[in-house]
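[[Sequence with tokens]]
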Amino acid sequence: MCLAGSPPKKLPRCLLAEPCARVLFGIIVEGLADRFEPSLTDTYVRLFAEALAVLNSEWDVVPLLARYERIRRPRPVTGKPQRVVVLSRVTLGADVAVTSVLLAAAKRRFPHAEILFAGPHKNYELFAADARIRHAPLDYPRGSLAERLEAGRALREMVEGPDAGSVPAIVIDPDSRLTQLGLLPVCAEETYYFFESRTYGAATDHSLPELAAQWAGEILGVDGARPYLALGRKHRKTAGISVSLGVGENPAKRIPGPFEAELLKLLDETGLPLTIDAGAGGEEAERVKRAIEASGVAATMWEGSFAGFARIIAGSQLYVGYDSAGQHVAAACGVPLISIFAGFPSPRMFTRWRPQGERCHVIRVDEPDPEAVLARVRDALAVPAVQAGE
């Protein structure tokens, strides 16, 4: 109904009860957000404000909507805050592609301020070696709606509670799930700066890193901010290829059939060693093992943290994978990459999330034909800018 332009007048109450949180977020919320369409963003705001008001009498729909209309309008930062809290987007790829751009801009604009990264530890690990960035631990549970909203309450306590201190502070929100995409008030409006990534630059085909940099220029007065990582010890370039077959629980991003095993065979033909991320474990790790076994290649599986795999990517001669966090790590580190980008619900999502750079080769997959995609990977391996071992 929402995609057809006829959204419901009221959010179905059954979606607020358990066990419907996965449906509410995975289908409705992400379905509206992932298309990067202003009208669908407005639908999300209206429906989710209603959900918040139902679950907590502290909130009322009309004030929530009025506040959102105010905070979605970009305005330059004024004053000299002594503390800058930059919120995690919770997903690893988004923290590389978007949040890191705002962290980089904040460090330049406020050289003497304390910069806090508020979010999960596994995300903070991507920036842990940056002496300017301090961690404000904050988890985001993937449970019920009430449990997810608890992260917003914890964030508000962190920012404005009795232990927050009295130093002038601002919050930079990169469209974080911690605030339910800006809807949850976590501090005074005058100290809150919201990058509404789903509508900002709506008339353009710019990628999210480009839009985040543009917003940072408009809001923080800092031009040219780029994605970055601070992973600790630097890795000497190896003659290896790092591979990720992870799809973030979205099977539409996969190419069906024996594609993954055939991909590993093709990469093995380069004569370079392969290191493949086992992902979050469970079914994904089993799928990786099956692909390795079916391919017959002598690949190494990485079963540690994502930050550890990011170090491997940074030291690789080439990265290959589906649309996932790994492609953004490779792009941020200047590593040649081949991204197999499938399962996007709209062309606008592809343009927003594609990695960019001279050494980024993105294979847009509109029809998941395994043989055709393999042929395009073979062609990409021959492109000088992305050739392994260059």
The mean pLDDT is 93. The chain is about 40% helix and 15% strand. The CA atoms of residues 5 and 389 lie 50 Å apart.
